[in-house]
Design brief:
The structure holds 2 protein chains of 2 kinds. By secondary structure, chain A is α/β, with parallel strands linked by helices. Chain A contains 24 helices and 20 strands. Chain A is globular, with a radius of gyration of 26 Å. The longest helix of chain B has 16 residues. The chains are: A alpha/beta, B alpha/beta.
Chain lengths: 615, 1027
């Protein structure tokens, strides 16, 4: 099968992930070489947003046969052009190899990571050029808006969304149609619409990817929502830390205005709506809706007590509806295919799909979209490809700092709102972090509490002070100086912070502590009673030891040690002066003979860890 | 308002409520206590402290009462174990960051009796050094919750003290972040000088970039200080005077708003003025003058105290009787038409009435006039046409206006409290337009509020008002008219006519509010208006023409030379002035705070101020001076000046004066429409308006407030200096005033300083137990301080001192390389040690530094040394390392349990004795209470005990007797002098009661010293500019 060269397209992923792996150099090389081969007028280059499989970036896809080349360097490009584009041969060494079957998979759609997914909201991601409105329109974009404005009354839109069972994808999972209805019925004018793109969870990048890869779908969704609730002005609040998302969104805002999808008298319907882009300064709490509104109003981002709810008194005390990026992005699809179609996907309580940013100790980290009700096991093993280096799965942290850890006993739990809540975690906006056996759960809880503690806005006492007290206790536990009374205090404070905090940030901040305490209490007890860290992570509780048998005296560790803690003559066994050791771990990771191990200070229980060999 | 009443249950009690109320409001109305730290009635719910959580039957969780709306049929529980437990935990968390030894200390009640008289320490760390001592919300909540201990880690914040600003100090280490100050400044006052900065644990209140408040647009209104539930914000001039229950509710008379205040006093001396809610217009708010300046101005040392008569060309103090007889004799020499009276617009109605009566009836003259800026004519005109003929809506209702015209009005400075109402009007959607004459510039805060600001010529202003009249038709409106007295006669007349005819009279709901900068312009005017129609301009002319020979002034005249032509000048005033040169008699009168009397406020209501403080020495209320004088002048022929109090006079005024009669019935009569005015289209106006009114033109009885309140003066100078942007200022040169050089001076723990001075001769001779007497400069108090360390080779001595008052505060300002005026020593007797066995040394506060040389000496002789250190919390220990090196055993005691044993030194002692420690000798240095309590325990165990007594000392040589104290030996009292007999005495013999009493004797003068000390903002700015 030979494909005419003029039909070929080179699709380069230009998401933030691939960009950070120097996709720009790749792009330039492709351009230059095409020129060199005199193909630049024949073969098109297309830049897209993130396709989700960030683990293997930077990537190039050759259309129309959708051959997927991964982990590319500029030096790989000549091969692709000469062999694939010109001669029609697939460059095998750049293909994806399935780690399970050890087979090469040329076609992107055949790769398990993609095959097992169900794409609704991310279906354009990685396929269209986000900065080209034509591509969006060619793929059916803005049809739904047209349909809504011509055929639906606002209340009919609300009814349709209600029927679809769409829940807000920001975290709490409130029924979107219901929320709109409150705002639609609220007294007061003007009404405002806000898109919350202040994605702040560590490890989460779902909203960013959508804004970078398919921003028009968010605009279309916002106009539909604005029409339904009767708002003429909307805001999108994107954090400053997302420069690419801000850049792309500003570009497409202009395009949408030029094409009369925004502005006065949209598509001659008589409906006016405009969107202002607000850049957030990167406070985690501004993801909380009332704090976000304060921030838009030019005040310090601090949550307000509710009631009154934003639907009645939000931005400038006017009725306001606020939804997450993904919620808006679903809307055009639901209008296009109908509420029944959407509610047929997922489970009875939770329709549609869930977009997950899969990170941590996982082979295929990236952006994943699966139907609601998919099990954790399927996400981790079938799509995520399991844990690297044959480590054991320990737990999965869902919902970011507000969520909790789910241990391996619950791998078969279906992902939906109530199942996760029952386990003490939350769905959150979809950041999933996979943890393996090398993770210390106390350390993990400490990490998340130190994050929430730092990001507390300081308004309410339990969150501001309670998280600080918890952090200090966790630090003591990690240092091996805590008593069992401290553990009791920790639990008590966690309970108080959860019950008495003003906003969602504080109310959920103790979740990482509470769930790790629930499922991994033995680890806390080991730190406190035995003064040992079972995962050998907490610095004060383990030592690096050089094995006399295996040390060759090669001096690699000595040269790497910045604190001069390693002594011993060349070619003779070295040893570590524990008092000087800062536990930086450089010797451990650099020893060519695996002669250095971590040992628990008290139990001398040796854990020999395999050194990962280059991935 | 007949709103529909609804019902709900709180703690099984049925209560009524109105739609829109929150649960907390309903509970407050029903006298049900729900703890809270962040609730302010006037502001939106905040929900920060999480103490007002309640249980609502049928709902999940614990909604906060402050923000949850009450609903029909709700069943609310305000306590119960689960709730109280949650609240206790939240409160414990709050306390874990707030120094709270004052709350958990078991000596809490005893401490109140024995504490040092006025511990004016810089930083607050609990107990009596907290300015919120008597008014602590945290104490109330912890008492309600029954909290005694706190098992959580205590992590106090050691922010540095902010005290370089005028009027108030900030110690954010005490802040519980309730946000009240931030909200009241932003939401209510509309100033926004402060806000939160940082996140998480580091969240704090600040001006943003650590500027001084004086550099921001802070107005020093004190609203933040008044809402602070802790001691974090405090009024620096009054914080140490321990607010008692001794207060009088009254009205401020620095302008005619008449804001209501609670005036606190201690033995008749005004100590603080706290705004209250009696006046609905001010409603608990105030301005810098009323809030902070009142006590300082009133307590000023230079107040007139004695009547004075000119004898041999000099004013000489005399008795009232003699002064009255002198005046009486002199007045007889003049014909009625040669006598004139000028009345201060700050006089009470009663005083003005009596002067008027005295002039009219006793002296038969009607040459009585209101002493005001020149164009008094406008007042006559204004009252003719407006006040009497129209009705005024109360000024507090301007927040419901649809539009407000500010004409030449700078309310932010002249009547700051009114700006709150204007802001509320704006928040309610009113349009605010400011019309200013050319060279008139609005202060920034007012500018923020106005929708339109127009700078116009006089003619343009008139044209604007004529042209835009229709825009304001049929709407509720208010015209606020400032600086009426400063405009030219002709222009004001036209303007008033125009406003009345085009705006006020034809419209039902348009009101004109002229603002007076003085308190009783309207009242005094109304008193004299009926019979005396002289304007002050006319009287001045008559003086210049030589027609007036005797003049009775109740306020100085601005142009003192005017008095040169007058034969008899009687001046009734409260402060000295340039008019003294010409005065024949000076009569000291009272300020409004020292007499009762009424004024007509901005709503033309008669409001009566009560006496809130004692007058200085012989000063008398104005009405009293007049009635006494009149009796002597009348020689008992009339009985009409027999008044026992000002109320009787007011009754007479109401009876005789129609205007007051109408006021007292508080019904206004519409006297019909006035005739159409005729504008002169090319009217030539005489004068240009004066430059904007500013802070330094605020006066009372002709005396500029800023003259007497150094901090206010500091604000004015600072802002002027900033405007002129003087960068060339050089830092002051270090003045070499002596040989005593400061090697170093640093704060080693909150309030505790280590001062190293170069004094070779003292360093050579110093022995344990010696002290020195320091004077920072020529005017300083002499301060005795123990020598804690000395180095003969370097020639230096080291002193540890605690900032505990004005003199020690001055020491904290010493910088390395400065010179100290005087160092005298070594004084006191040496304490020599032998080998006793076990020696116990106990230190508290400043005593920690003082026991160091004793510890060294005891150790040197081979004793076993045990050291107990006591403090309120662990942050306050210092020199720990040095002590730990010397001591065989260290015992720490903290009131809040943050280090060592929770408790006081006696708990540490008990711990040692209980474990069987045999102590042969003990020494204690610290506060009187600590030494007394320790001595009582050692007495039981027969341990020889020595204490170091800190007394008031002046000469240090046994001559003055200031340091006198009594010992009780065999039941007999023996007098000793701390300077020569001490400072160490047998702790079992000291008469502690008399010692405590003696050290309290200078409490009041000490407080006054603080009031006259200005802030250091300018000094600080000079340095930063140079850098």
């Amino acid at each position: 099968m030979t494909i005419p060269i003029s039909l070929r397209k080179i699709v380069i992923c230009r998401g933030t992930g691939c960009n950070s792996l120097n996709a720009e150099a790749l792009n330039n090389t492709v351009k230059d070489l095409l020129q060199e081969y005199d193909l630049s007028n024949i073969i098109k280059i297309k830049s897209t947003g993130c396709h989700g499989f960030c683990q293997v970036g930077p990537t190039i896809k050759i259309e129309p046969e959708n051959v997927f080349y991964i982990k590319l360097k500029p030096s790989d490009i000549p091969d692709i052009i000469e062999k694939h584009l010109i001669k029609g041969e697939i460059v095998e060494r750049l293909l994806y190899r399935d780690p399970k079957t050890n087979k090469l998979i040329p076609n992107i759609d055949e790769i398990p990571f993609f095959k097992e997914q169900k794409l609704i909201v991310t279906q354009n991601c990685g396929k269209i050029d986000p900065e080209d409105i034509k591509e969006y329109i060619d793929n059916g974009g803005y049809n739904s808006l047209n349909k809504v404005l011509k055929e639906f009354s606002p209340l009919e839109v609300i009814a349709e969304i209600k029927k679809s069972g769409l829940r807000g994808r920001g975290g709490s999972g409130f029924l979107t149609g219901q929320k709109w209805l409150f705002c639609h019925e609220a007294q007061g004018s003007p009404k405002y619409l806000i898109c919350n793109a202040d994605e702040g969870d560590p490890g989460a990048f779902m909203d960013r990817s959508i804004l970078e890869s398919d921003p028009h779908s968010v605009i279309e969704g916002m106009v539909i929502a604005a029409y339904a609730i009767g708002a003429n002005l909307g805001y999108i609040y994107i954090r400053e830390e997302y420069p690419l998302a801000i850049k792309r969104f500003s570009t497409v805002l202009k395009q949408a205005k030029e094409n009369r999808y925004l502005g006065k008298n949209i598509l001659n319907s008589g409906f006016d709506f405009d969107i202002d882009l607000i850049k957030g300064a990167g406070a985690f709490v501004c993801g909380e809706e009332t704090a976000l509104m304060e921030s838009i109003m030019g005040k310090r981002g601090m949550p307000r007590p509710r009631p009154p709810y934003p639907a009645n008194s939000g931005l400038w005390n006017k009725p306001t509806n606020i939804n997450n990026v993904k919620t808006f992005a679903y809307l055009p699809k639901i209008i296009e295919k109908g509420a029944e179609w959407f509610s047929s996907i997922g489970t009875k309580d939770a329709s549609g799909t869930i977009v997950i940013a899969l990170t941590g100790k996982i082979n295929n980290s990236g952006l994943v979209e699966v139907p609601m009700g998919t099990t954790i096991r399927k996400v981790v093993y079938d799509i995520g490809g399991g844990i690297p280096n044959n480590k054991a799965f320990k737990a999965i942290q869902t919902g970011g700092p507000s969520g909790g850890c789910i241990p391996k006993e619950y791998l078969d739990t279906p992902l939906d709102y109530h199942h996760l809540t029952d386990l003490g975690s939350i769905m959150g906006s979809g950041g999933f972090i996979v943890l393996d056996e090398d993770t210390c759960m106390v350390d993990l809880a400490h990490y998340f509490i130190s994050f929430t503690q730092k990001e507390s806005c300081g308004k309410c006492a339990p969150c501001r002070i309670g998280t600080r007290r918890m952090l200090n206790i966790l630090t003591k536990i990690k240092e091996g100086t805590a008593s069992i009374e401290d553990l009791r205090s920790l639990e008590k404070i966690a309970d108080v912070v959860k019950k008495t905090s003003l906003c969602g940030l504080g109310q959920t901040a103790p979740n990482p502590v509470l769930t790790t305490l629930k499922y991994f209490r033995n680890e806390y007890e080991a730190h406190i009673c035995n003064k040992s860290c079972p995962a050998l992570v907490c610095e004060n509780l383990f030592e690096y030891i050089i094995s006399e048998q295996e040390c060759t005296g090669c001096d690699v560790c000595t040269n790497n040690c910045s604190s001069k803690a390693i002594v011993g003559e060349s070619d003779k066994t070295h040893s570590i002066v524990q008092g000087l050791c800062t536990k930086c771990g450089l010797c451990f990771s650099s020893c060519p003979y695996n002669a250095i191990s971590k040992e628990s200070k008290n139990h001398y229980q040796t854990v020999r860890l395999a050194i990962p060999n280059g991935g | 308002m007949a709103a529909k009443r609804k019902f709900l249950y709180i703690d099984e009690t049925l209560v009524e409520f109105n739609e829109g109320q929150t649960i907390l409001e309903v509970a407050k109305e029903s006298q049900i206590y729900i703890p809270t730290l962040c609730y302010i009635k006037e502001l939106l719910p905040y929900g920060g402290c999480r103490l007002c959580l309640v249980r609502v039957e049928g709902t999940k969780g614990f909604p906060p009462a402050c923000s949850t709306p009450a609903e029909e049929g709700m069943n609310i529980l305000t306590n119960g174990k689960e709730l109280q437990d949650l609240r206790r935990e939240v409160m414990k968390l709050i306390m874990s960051e707030h120094p709270h030894s004052c709350i958990v200390c078991n000596n809490r009640s005893e401490c109140e009796d024995l504490k040092r008289p006025t511990n004016k320490s810089g930083r607050v760390f609990g107990c009596f050094s907290c300015p919120n001592n008597n008014d602590c919300d945290l104490k109330a909540v912890t008492d309600y919750l029954g909290l005694k201990t706190n098992e959580y880690e205590l992590e106090y914040k050691n922010y540095s003290l902010e005290r370089d600003d005028p009027f108030f100090e900030r110690d954010y280490s005490l802040c519980v972040l309730c946000g009240k100050c931030v909200r009241v400044c932003n939401e209510l006052r509309g100033i926004g000088a402060i806000n939160f900065i940082n996140r998480g644990h580091d969240t704090r209140v600040s001006t943003g970039v650590n500027q001084l408040h004086i550099e921001t647009n802070c107005q020093f209104c004190g609203a933040c200080v008044d809402v602070c539930p802790t001691g974090a914000l405090s009024s620096k001039n009054t914080k140490w005077s321990n607010r008692t229950n001794n207060y009088v509710n009254s009205f401020c008379n620095f302008c005619n708003i008449g804001c209501s205040f609670s005036y606190y006093n201690s033995n008749g001396i005004l100590t603080d003025s706290i705004p209250n809610e009696i006046n609905p217009l001010s409603n608990g708010q105030a301005c810098v003058i009323g809030r902070f300046c009142a006590p300082i101005f009133n307590n000023n040392n230079e107040r007139l105290r004695y009547p004075m008569i000119k004898k041999n060309g000099a004013l000489t103090p005399t008795t009232w009787d003699e002064a009255f007889r002198y005046i009486s004799e002199k007045l007889k020499l003049f014909k009625p038409e040669e006598i004139a009276f000028l009345l201060s617009p700050d006089l009470s109605n009663e005083s003005a009435y009596l002067i008027n009566k005295f002039a009219n009836e006793s002296l038969k003259t009607n040459q009585v006039s209101l002493l005001s800026d020149e164009n008094i004519n406008n007042l006559y005109d204004f009252y003719e046409k407006y006040t009497i003929r129209s009705s005024r809506r109360p000024l507090e209702n301007i927040d419901s206006s649809n539009w407000i015209l500010l004409i030449n009005s700078d309310v932010q400075i002249s009547h700051p409290v009114l700006l709150i109402k204007i802001k509320q009007a704006k928040d309610n959607g009113a349009k605010i337009i400011s019309l200013n004459l050319n060279n008139y510039e609005l202060p920034f805060e007012t500018k923020k509020l106005v929708d339109e600001e127009l700078a116009l010529t006089e003619k343009e202003l008139i044209d604007y008002l004529v042209e835009n009249k229709t825009e304001f038709r049929n709407q509720k409106g208010s015209i606020i008219f400032g600086n009426l007295m400063k405009l030219s006669d002709k222009f004001t007349k036209d303007l008033i006519d125009l406003l009345l005819n085009l705006y006020v009279l034809p419209e039902k709901d348009v009101n004109l509010f002229p603002l007076w900068n003085r308190s009783n312009t309207e009242g005094v005017f109304q008193i004299i208006y009926e019979k005396n129609r002289n304007t002050s301009l006319e009287l001045f002319q008559k003086i210049r023409d030589g027609k007036i020979k005797a003049l009775y002034l109740t306020e100085r005249v601005k142009n003192a030379e005017l008095l040169e032509n007058i034969d008899l000048v009687i001046l009734q005033d409260i402060f000295p002035s340039d008019n003294f040169k010409y005065a024949d008699v000076v009569l000291p009168s009272c300020s409004f705070l020292e007499q009762s009397g009424s004024i007509l406020n901005s709503n033309l209501e008669i409001i009566t101020s009560e006496q809130a403080a004692y007058p200085p020495d012989k000063a008398l209320p104005d009405w009293k001076i007049l009635s006494d004088l009149a009796k002597i002048v009348d020689e008992g022929t009339f009985q009409t000046f027999n008044y026992t109090d000002s109320n009787e006079i007011l009754e007479e005024i109401v009876e005789k004066n129609r205007f007051f009669r109408d006021r007292s019935n508080s019904k206004l009569k519409d006297l019909g429409k006035i005739e159409q005015i005729h504008l002169n289209p090319n009217g030539s106006y005489l004068k240009t308006p004066e430059k904007a009114y500013s802070l330094n033109s605020i006066e009372y009885r002709g005396e500029k407030i800023s003259n007497r309140v150094s901090d206010l003066n500091e604000i004015i100078s600072f802002r002027q200096l900033k405007e002129s942007d003087k960068k060339e200022e050089k830092p002051e040169q270090v003045k070499i005033i002596s040989d005593y050089k400061v090697i170093s001076n640093k704060e080693i723990a909150p309030n505790f300083y280590e001062l190293v001075i170069e004094v070779p001769l003292i360093a050579k001779k110093a022995k344990p137990g010696n002290f020195v007497i320091l004077m920072k400069d020529e005017q300083s108090e002499k301060t005795p301080l123990t020598i804690s360390n000395w180095d003969e080779s370097k020639g230096t001595i080291t002193i540890y001192f605690q900032e505990a008052g004005f003199s020690t505060k001055k020491f904290t300002e010493l910088k390395d390389g400065d010179y100290i005026f005087s160092v005298v020593g070594p004084l006191g007797n040496e304490i020599s040690f032998e080998k006793y066995g076990t020696v116990l040394l106990g230190g508290g506060c400043y005593g920690n530094g003082a026991i160091l040389p004793l510890a060294k000496a005891a150790k040197k002789m081979g004793n076993k040394v045990i050291i107990i250190l006591e403090s309120r919390n662990r942050n306050l220990f210092y020199l720990e390392e040095q002590f730990e090196e010397i001591a065989d055993e260290m015992v720490y005691c903290t009131s809040d349990g943050s280090k060592g044993i929770q408790g006081k030194i006696e708990d540490g002692l008990k711990y040692l004795l209980d474990k069987g420690e045999k102590i042969d000798r003990s020494y204690f240095i610290g506060c009187n209470m600590m030494m007394k309590n320790a001595s009582e325990i050692t007495r039981l165990y027969n341990i020889p005990t020595y204490v170091s007594l800190s007394t008031i000392m002046i000469d240090g040589t046994g001559m003055c007797g200031g340091c006198r104290l009594t010992l009780i030996e065999d039941g007999k009292e023996i007098t000793k002098f701390a300077c020569v007999d001490g400072p160490i005495f047998d702790g079992h013999k000291v008469n502690w009661e008399s010692l405590t009493k003696r050290s309290a004797q200078y409490k009041e003068p000490e407080i006054l010293v603080f009031q006259n000390h200005s802030c250091r903002a300018i000094e600080k700015m000079k340095v930063s500019n140079f850098n």
